[in-house]
Design goal:
Blueprint lengths: L12 H23 L18 H11 L12 H16 L3 E2 L5 E5 L11 E9 L9 E7 L5 E5 L2 E4 L3 H22 L10 E7 L7 H8 L8 E7 L9 E5 L7 H8 L6 E4 L10 H5 L4 E5 L18 H20 L11 H4 L3
Parallel strand pairs: 4-7, 4-8, 8-11, 9-10
Antiparallel strand pairs: 1-3, 2-3, 3-7, 5-6, 9-11
This protein binds zinc ion.
Length: 350
Amino acid sequence: MRSARAANHGKGPARERALRRARLLLLLSLLLAACDSSPPSAPEVPPFDPLLSETALLDHLNFLAADSLFGRGVGSEHERRAAEYVRDRFQEHGLQPGDTTYLQTVPLPFPVNGQTGATSQNVLGVLPGEGRLAGQWLILGAHYDHLGFLRASADSVVVYNGADDNASGTALMLEVASYLSDQLAGVRAVDGRRSIMFQAYGAEEAGLIGSDYFCEHPTVPMDSVVAMLNLDMVGRLRDNVLILVGTSSSDEWTGLVAAANGTSSLWFALDERLLGRSDQACFYHSQRPVLFLHTGLHNEYHTPYDDVWLINTDGMLRVGNLVIALLQDLAVRSERLSFGDVALEFAEQR
Ligand SMILES: [Zn+2]
């Protein structure tokens, strides 16, 4: 968006003198800046070895945030196409359906294009665990819908592509699913391993409708869910700082994140104010430990300018390393996580 232009007040010699003075001051300040031998420098971002493929992430981003998906509006045929794309990737990765099929139909409580009875869908894929821990569940979730499009004229539209919100989280969830299903296939966990359900929610932008529906109609017992990790807007990492929401939902989170950060070298900011703002909310209300990973709001948030070219794929790869290490640890640790509800008042702010 262009900023408003300043009004052009004043004309004549006085204005000319003022302009000359301003130019002189600008020149002086540039010279002074050039003479300063020690400009403040940002701390150096530590190197890391990515576990995931940047090309694969970009493939998902370019599909989901393309104009041809018209912003994946809630209840639209385009949202449905995005859901089918996620389902097809789950199938390719060898995940099992998380319900009788991969798609859980979510009724919408409002008409879409004037039609009542519209639906959205959650996409559920399962990586089964083993042994005594197989009946316990980890969930990695991300919503795939966005705001759709606006009709600008009779023959043109403005598309809200939603590259960061939340093609980024969906793309990362898909690649973590692919990586873990490859890594864990055929590896015997001596003491057992928890099952992982990968979940792509629809209708988040209309009020967390998809994830709320899963919490009300869970396909596994809710008290068997050991932890829920949510990826919503993970494509705009700045200054290497990842925002963690939900660390107060379990005493163990900060220790687990610190241990898992070895291969991602991220820095963290904790912010419980967003606890009720994305799909982890209903899991938190069901007293499940939750962790929402987020790279922050920005000027393009909920505008038509949230595009793929602004995505920091290096940052996404760092977050990917962290999520993989967390899930690998959570899958085999002997104890479940404790639940703490000190931030309940934040979750109420929905
Ligand atoms: Zn959004």
